[in-house]
Design a protein that fits this description.
54% of the residues lie in helices and 9% in strands. It has 230 residues and is of the alpha+beta class. Pfam families: GST_C_7, GST_N_2.
């Protein structure tokens, strides 16, 4: 039966932007699985699949539903073991957990300080109201104030990428000569910023930017098919 991936979008349904949904989209392509995409805005997620999950991505494979990007990756790995591995073994699975933890605690908060107002601006009207209220409550500041000093935050953020830069500066992907799910985890964060915000923060010759370009070209240019925000 067909696999369906539920993804988060703003006003333009052709521009999925969630970092977590991008992880899964790339994982599906890595596995060589046929799938179709269905889209939802923030306020539509609770109505998907009878209220199955409050978050996306949601994967529907036949009658099976799975939410959470890492849980979906594990499901794909375990359900389709004859397809290319996402982890390269149990050690890779455990290390991918570390990469996810690092990405969500280091990269995601920094990117939010750069792009959160731009994310708000690409949403539909109902989602804008939800997004502003929920994020401003979490941040303790208006969205405008939260990003007001973003230009000054770029240099400190780039310094935090040194562990990633050191690895992808000497090998094509985080996981070696070819990508695994750990690459897609970090790729999802940068794709989130690329699709939702025109703010440029990575120098073109930065090894991280070059790695990101290689990721955009993977799987027949899956990531590059969605143009960068302008």
């Amino acid at each position: 039966m067909a696999i369906t991936l539920y993804e988060l979008v703003g006003r333009d349904a052709a521009r999925p932007f969630s970092p977590h949904c991008w992880k899964v989209r790339m994982a599906l392509r890595h596995k060589g699985l046929d799938f179709q995409c269905a889209t939802a805005g923030f306020t539509e997620i609770p109505g998907l699949e009878g209220g199955y999950s409050k978050i996306v991505p949601i994967l529907k494979d036949g009658e099976t539903l799975v939410a959470d990007s890492f849980a979906i990756a594990e499901y794909l790995e375990d359900t389709y073991p004859d397809r290319p591995s996402l982890f390269g073994g149990e050690g890779g699975r455990a290390l991918s957990r570390f990469v996810e933890s690092w990405s969500q605690r280091t990269i995601h908060p920094a990117l939010a300080r750069l792009a959160v107002l731009d994310i708000h601006d690409i949403l539909g009207e109902a989602d804008q109201a939800y997004f502003r209220e929920s994020r401003e409550k979490a941040f303790g500041a208006t969205l405008e104030a939260f990003v007001a000093d973003r230009a000054e935050r770029v240099a400190p953020f780039l310094k935090t990428l040194e562990p990633l830069r050191a690895i992808v500066g000497r090998q094509p992907f985080l996981c070696g000569e070819s990508p695994l799910f750990a690459d897609y985890i970090v790729f999802g964060a940068f794709q989130w910023a690329r699709v939702s915000s025109p703010f440029q923060f990575l120098p073109q010759d930065d090894p991280v930017a070059l790695w990101f370009e290689r990721c955009l070209a993977l799987h027949e240019g899956e990531g590059a098919k969605v143009p960068a925000a302008a």
